[in-house]
Amino acid sequence: MTGIIDYNAGNISSVARALSSLGLEFLISKRPEELATAERLIIPGVGEAAFAMNQLKKSGYDSFIIDAAKKGIPILGICLGSQIVMDYSEEGNVDCLGLIPGKVRHFPDDLPAMGLKIPHMGWNNISYRKTDPLFSGIRENSDFYFVHSYYLDPSDIEDITGVAEYGIEFSCALNRKNIFALQFHPEKSGKQGLKILGNFATLTKESFGC
User: Fold this and answer.
1) Predicted confidence (pLDDT) at residue 210 exceeds the cutoff of 80
2) Is there a catalytic annotation at residue 187?
3) Which of 160, 165, 119 is nearest to 141 (CA)?
4) Cβ 49 vs Cβ 92: under 8 Å
5) What is the pLDDT of residue 209?
6) Of 158, 165, 185, 210, which is the active-site residue?
7) What pLDDT does residue 11 have?
8) 41 SS3 class
């Protein structure tokens, strides 16, 4: 069973619809104890990092997620959820969960001068940097749907599995052991996005030797 973390900052309904369309078992909960037996966790998210971290701390989900990560439970952060698994976000200047070392940075202020709007919104193809089980069966340069003003900047480039270009080349997919972070929205990215969610649903802590 896949647990979907509801922390008042997530695109819960679209993720739930995507998993339902795949016939996958899932549970949405605001209470960490209800997801204690989940085989994997999804942290969705739309909004602002400081608010999100405040909500996680209020609910106890911050320590719950960190403990689950240590146990080898597969964890997938989507959009805002991908950002709060990092060490720190420039959005609200807030410390995050620290599951993947690195920072979340704002797109350069000169992008509008290049004719590029912030936030980056719409379809963008991605290039692979290394093998990632989430992209199994998905061709390189497939398009995915993005909505964001901030991007992932990991400390270790070995954590980068996918990049995209929007004025600059930026990391849009990370994997560090059992932690996965996707800046784009797989649940809004058609067949290729559903394939990613289906691939994630095959992972358990045993996939990582735990």
Assistant:
1) no
2) yes
3) 165
4) yes
5) 86
6) 185
7) 73
8) strand
CA–CA gap between residue 27 and residue 41 (Å, rounded)? 10
Model confidence at 130, in pLDDT bands (50, 70, 90)? very high
What are the backbone angles phi and psi of residue 140, rounded to the nearest 5°?
-65, 150
Specify the 3-state DSSP secondary structure of 206: helix
- Catalytic annotation, pick one of 79, 91, 148, 172: 79
Active site residue 185: yes
pTM: 0.97
Annotated catalytic residue, options 48, 96, 120, 187 = 187
Token couple for 45 = 């998210």
Pair 152, 102: CB distance under 8 Å: yes
Helix axes 61-70, 49-59, angle to 10 degrees: 90
| Phi, psi (degrees; rounded to nearest 5) at 106 | -75, 145
Of 15, 9, 3, 12, the residue nearest 40 (C-alpha): 3
- In the annotation, is 210 catalytic? no
Residues 21-79: pLDDT tens digits? Answer: 999 999 999 999 999 999 999 999 888 999 999 999 999 999 999 999 999 999 999 99
